[in-house]
């Protein structure tokens, strides 16, 4: 391989494939490699045979759960916000032509020992069990404040400052109860923990607006999901990259990351071939060994996840075919939220009459599976269960000196907003601080979504 590339990318997760497509469109010569035979890397969508090979090698697959090809089980399930940035990237880059989406039927939150639907309409808000009558009035005023805020109109500010005041002060101003703060902060603003309370309120304001505008886009819930599994996303972006000259190589061993004497990236060796490039981007699983004695990644946490096959919808969700359910940390005495993502055959990821629920959280004790109990207890009888514990990694440095830019591991959340943050972060590092900007398309264009 004598060819020289601008960028080599290792791993075909969503983050890596989005970056590959964006860099190819930007005119860069990209080579994309993966050790696996399939797209998606650590976040691939597996058929039944692959699922058993990964979690129960050598064991026979039960005959009562359908055909191999009817399954596309996400190892790291994620839903897209209908108005979120990844959806905008899909539309902007025209990757939507390769994909079709279906709505997630409902968003739920765990509160006071039971689950309740996060209201998607004004009528649902009035009938919601999440709040008593007086709290509903206070919450209504809070949401009207969020919707009506205009930066250039002080009369909409009520004397509050989103950039100077922490979110906790805004909650206090409207007198919201702790349970309401939990549901706003974790089920709508999708914060991972309560540290947002002490940060400027602007961040939470923007997240709530994203949630409400996503609900308004298609109704029912803010989330959409690609038919045939999340593994379709990296493949869609890979196709776009290929149109702009990107080269893909699957099932390729990565034997060595070659650097010069100063530790600066030179190329990647696979077998007796070395391919050279100016820069390297990759998922952290490719950087577990030190390079020239320098550690490039560090473990930030461990994640426990249970993939559960069910023969019924999740109880108390009005027989919804798909659900996003968040159990806020405070509700179960934890430091991290528990996420439940549920899908059905309507999303072309399972045979008829089977349901898939994945429960995940960050490990806080020496009994990880027990930490999933609050989520597992909500599922009813579980037909098959696959437990995995994995380490989450992040890059140690910016990567500019070594010209090695590492992405973050897929986290416990069941939405893609953290992936988008990572795409922006890596793009800035690779392009010397250039901001990633997508040109606006005509209003009205969007992902193809089935009702």
Shape: globular
Number of domains: 2
Report how far apart the termini are. 48 Å
The named CATH superfamily of the largest domain? FAD/NAD(P)-binding domain
Low-confidence stretches: 440-444
Brief characterization of the structure:
The protein is of the alpha/beta class and 451 residues long. It contains twelve helices and 20 strands. The strands form four sheets. Strands 1, 2, 10, 11, 12, 13 and 19 form a seven-stranded mixed beta sheet that branches.
Secondary structure layout plus pairing:
Blueprint: E1 4-10, H1 14-25, E2 30-33, E3 45-46, H2 48-55, E4 73-74, E5 80-81, H3 85-92, E6 101-103, E7 106-111, E8 114-117, H4 122-127, H5 133-148, H6 167-174, H7 178-188, H8 202-218, E9 223-226, H9 232-243, E10 247-249, E11 256-259, E12 265-270, E13 273-282, E14 297-310, E15 323-327, E16 338-344, E17 355-362, H10 368-371, H11 373-376, E18 384-395, E19 404-406, H12 417-430, E20 449-450
């Amino acid at each position: 391989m004598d060819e020289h590339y601008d960028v080599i990318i290792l791993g075909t997760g969503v983050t890596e494939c989005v970056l590959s497509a964006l860099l190819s469109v930007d005119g860069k010569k990209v080579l994309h490699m993966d050790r696996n035979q399939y797209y998606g890397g650590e976040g691939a969508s597996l058929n039944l045979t692959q699922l058993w090979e990964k979690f129960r090698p050598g064991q026979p697959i039960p005959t009562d759960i359908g055909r191999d090809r009817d399954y596309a089980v996400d190892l790291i399930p994620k839903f897209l916000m209908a108005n979120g940035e990844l959806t905008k990237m899909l539309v902007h880059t025209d990757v939507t032509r390769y994909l079709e989406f279906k709505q997630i039927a409902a968003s739920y939150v765990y509160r006071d020992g039971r689950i309740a639907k996060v209201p998607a309409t004004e009528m649902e808000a009035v009938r919601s069990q999440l709040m008593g009558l007086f709290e509903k009035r206070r919450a209504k005023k809070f949401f009207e404040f969020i919707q009506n805020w205009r930066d250039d109109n002080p009369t909409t500010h009520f004397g509050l400052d989103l950039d100077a005041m922490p979110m906790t002060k805004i909650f206090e101003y409207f007198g919201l109860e702790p349970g309401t703060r939990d549901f706003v902060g974790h089920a709508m603003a999708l914060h991972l923990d309560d540290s947002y309370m002490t940060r400027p309120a602007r961040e939470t304001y923007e997240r709530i607006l994203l949630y409400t505008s996503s609900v308004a886009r298609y109704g029912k819930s803010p989330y959409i999901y690609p038919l045939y599994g999340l593994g379709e996303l990296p493949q869609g972006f890979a196709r776009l990259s290929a149109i702009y000259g990107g080269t893909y190589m699957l099932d390729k061993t990565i034997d060595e990351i070659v650097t010069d004497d100063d530790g600066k990236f030179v190329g990647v060796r696979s077998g007796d071939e070395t391919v050279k490039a100016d820069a390297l981007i990759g998922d952290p699983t490719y950087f577990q060994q030190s390079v020239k004695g320098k550690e490039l990644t560090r473990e930030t946490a461990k994640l426990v996840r249970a993939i559960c096959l069910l023969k019924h919808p999740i109880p108390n969700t009005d027989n919804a075919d798909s659900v996003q359910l968040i159990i806020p940390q405070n509700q179960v005495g934890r430091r991290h939220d528990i996420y439940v993502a549920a899908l059905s055959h309507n999303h072309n990821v399972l045979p008829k009459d089977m349901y898939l629920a994945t429960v995940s959280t960050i490990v806080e004790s020496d009994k990880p599976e027990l930490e999933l109990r609050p989520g597992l207890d909500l599922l009813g009888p579980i037909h098959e269960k696959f437990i995995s514990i994995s380490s989450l990694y992040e890059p140690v440095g910016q990567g500019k000196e070594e010209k090695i830019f590492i992405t973050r591991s897929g986290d416990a959340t069941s939405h893609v907003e953290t992936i988008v943050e990572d795409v922006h972060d890596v793009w800035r590092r690779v392009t010397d601080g250039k901001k990633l900007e997508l040109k606006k398309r005509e209003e009205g264009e969007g992902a193809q979504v089935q009702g």
